[in-house]
Amino acid sequence: MSASLDPAYAPIGDVGTALLLVDSRLAQLAREDPTPDPEKCDLVERTLESFGPKAAQDVLDGACTLMYLYVDWLRKSLEAHGQDPMEYIVPYVASGLRAMRKSVKPEAIPTMVGMLTACVLGLSPTLWRRRYGQWLEAEMNALEASLVLLADRINNLTEDPNAASRMIVELLNVIDEQFGK
């Protein structure tokens, strides 16, 4: 593995806030009427706008950490069943992103495919993305949508609507216990 892209050298970021964004989007999609709640959207927007550049970067790093963890779980699950994770994870998310024509710009999809491929190969999506320049505004919705697709896939495979979120919360709890924040 290239040491320059090894996940051990990647910042973890603000996984909690990234998870909150994904979880709220999953909850919205699970409702009978998935129309966004304007009050919740406003709250999320105000929260995100209150972040300075450092905090915003931390949330992006946290989102990349979530991507890595979700893909790692899916990769291990697929490999345990003799399936090629590259064959199932990357096309699944790419086709989902292509179907979201109103919220995901086509030019952002190749970046997400690259990040997902890095994850499947055991490389850090954070460090992979940094190698190729600054984040683009068009990639923000694509990153969020990718995370929602991955989390939803985990939830569907486990037949548990909270499996992906619970997995991350449990991991964060273990880290808190070991390193005592």
Task: Write structural notes for this entry.
- The chain has about 180 residues and is mostly helical.
- It is built from eight helices and no strands.
- The protein has one domain (about 5-180).
- The protein is about 70% helix and about 0% strand.
- About 30% of the residues are buried.
Approximate strand percentage: under 5%
List unreliable stretches of 5+ residues.
Answer: none
Overall radius of gyration? 16 Å
* C-alpha termini separation: 30 Å
Element string (H = helix, E = strand): HHHHHHHH
Helix % is over 70%
The domain tally reads 1
Largest sheet: none
> What's the average pLDDT?
90
Helix/strand/pairing category: mainly alpha
Tally of helical segments: 8
Shape: globular
The counted number of beta strands is 0
Task: Break the fold down into its secondary structure elements and pairings.
Layout: H1 15-30, H2 38-49, H3 53-80, H4 85-99, H5 109-120, H6 125-131, H7 137-158, H8 163-179
Helix pairs in contact: 1-3, 1-7, 3-4, 3-5, 3-7, 4-5, 4-7, 5-6
What is the compact description of this entry?
The chain has helices at 15-30, 38-49, 53-80, 85-99, 109-120, 125-131, 137-158, 163-179.
Features:
181 residues; mainly alpha; 8 helices; globular
